[in-house]
Design goal:
Elements: H1 18-45, H2 47-50, H3 54-79, H4 86-119, H5 122-127, H6 130-151, H7 164-203, H8 207-244, H9 249-277, H10 279-288, H11 298-310, H12 314-319
Helix pairs in contact: 1-3, 1-9, 1-10, 3-4, 3-9, 4-6, 4-7, 6-7, 7-8, 8-9
Length: 321
């Protein structure tokens, strides 16, 4: 049953979600365009320094997805002020689901990369890339499934198809993708912490330094995994529970508000975390915003990398992108 009618071209302001979309979520995505665009510009300004490893390239792809996600949401919802047919909202719903799926898969790839980078030596790490293909295949299949259900069914809630069969498939694809991704990411970061902790205890003679570095690694792993949970778990729970348990309109509406805002905040939190972990990108940004910008030299970037490694343990820097 239709709980909150879709926004329409004639009177979008009559919809209860209008203030949420136009006064909260759109400004968040506008900020995400600025943040992600700035980081991408910095990365592609010095690609020989900032796109060296496979991990760096996946990170750049994640930023690109978040940038395109923000551009899609802003343009489509502003366009709804002038045009809002059912087909238009099918495109909005399908595009939103597809961008969320791509974001989750690239975060999963980063978790795999961090774990494998620490687990294997360089030669084995360079050759061990089979999981990249499997994750990308999974992403393509989920995207194809969403395209199929939204091209064959209208949408009433701007997120899921209305027809029963397509809705069941959507429920398996999208909340299912969120649940599985969160479980695998948690497992990978747990393994990353346990492996790094064991390495620190074995190779560090000073127990105080070892404990300090272990806390540093634990904090990094918790930070990177918890942001995904905070951003996508509310939406996953909402769309799973809402299909199985009847909710009052007010409960559903406020749950939708919380879920949508948390998903949108991920597009801001992710680039901020990248700035926090990547001193080399911060160095490029700093030189870019100086009055007379200079590209950092090989020596200055090397000094940045040394500072990262000196701040704890070498593997701590490796985990942090």
């Amino acid at each position: 049953m239709l709980r909150t009618p879709p926004l329409t071209a004639s009177r979008p302001e009559t919809n209860a979600l209008f203030p949420l979309i136009y006064y909260a979520i759109i400004p968040i995505y506008l900020w995400s365009l600025i943040l992600n665009g700035t980081l991408l510009a910095a990365i592609f300004r010095v690609p020989s320094k900032l796109l060296v490893t496979r991990m760096h390239k996946i990170m750049a792809l994640l930023l690109s997805v978040l940038f395109c996600f923000g551009l899609f949401i802003v343009s489509m919802h502003l366009g709804a002020l002038f045009y809002g047919s059912q087909a238009y909202w099918q495109v909005v719903a399908c595009g939103t689901c597809c961008f969320v799926i791509m974001t989750l898969h690239f975060n999963l790839l980063l978790a795999f990369e961090r774990y494998n980078f620490l687990l294997f030596d360089k030669a084995t790490y360079d050759s061990n890339r089979g999981y990249v293909g499997w994750v990308m295949l999974s992403c393509v299949l989920f995207l194809a499934g969403n395209l199929a259900v939204f091209t064959t069914s209208p949408t009433e809630d701007l997120m899921s198809p209305s027809l029963p069969l397509q809705n069941s498939i959507w429920l398996a694809l999208n909340p299912g993708c969120g649940i599985v991704t969160l479980i695998i990411v948690s497992y990978l970061y747990t393994c990353t912490f346990l492996h790094t902790s064991s390495t620190l205890r074995r190779d560090t003679k000073n127990s105080d330094i070892s404990r300090r570095n272990e806390r540093h690694v634990l904090w990094n792993c918790l930070l990177m995994s918890s942001t995904l949970y905070i951003a996508y778990l509310p939406a996953t729970i909402l769309w799973t529970v809402a299909k199985a348990v009847p909710l009052e309109d007010a409960t559903w509406f406020w749950a939708r508000v919380v879920a949508d805002i948390f998903v949108s905040l991920d597009s801001i939190v992710t680039p901020l975390l990248i700035c926090y972990f990547r001193a080399d990108i911060r160095s490029v940004l700093y030189t870019s915003f100086r009055r007379k910008p200079n590209l950092p030299s090989d020596k200055s970037l090397a000094q940045v990398e040394e500072e990262e490694e000196d701040d704890g343990f070498e593997t701590v820097s490796s985990i942090s992108y």
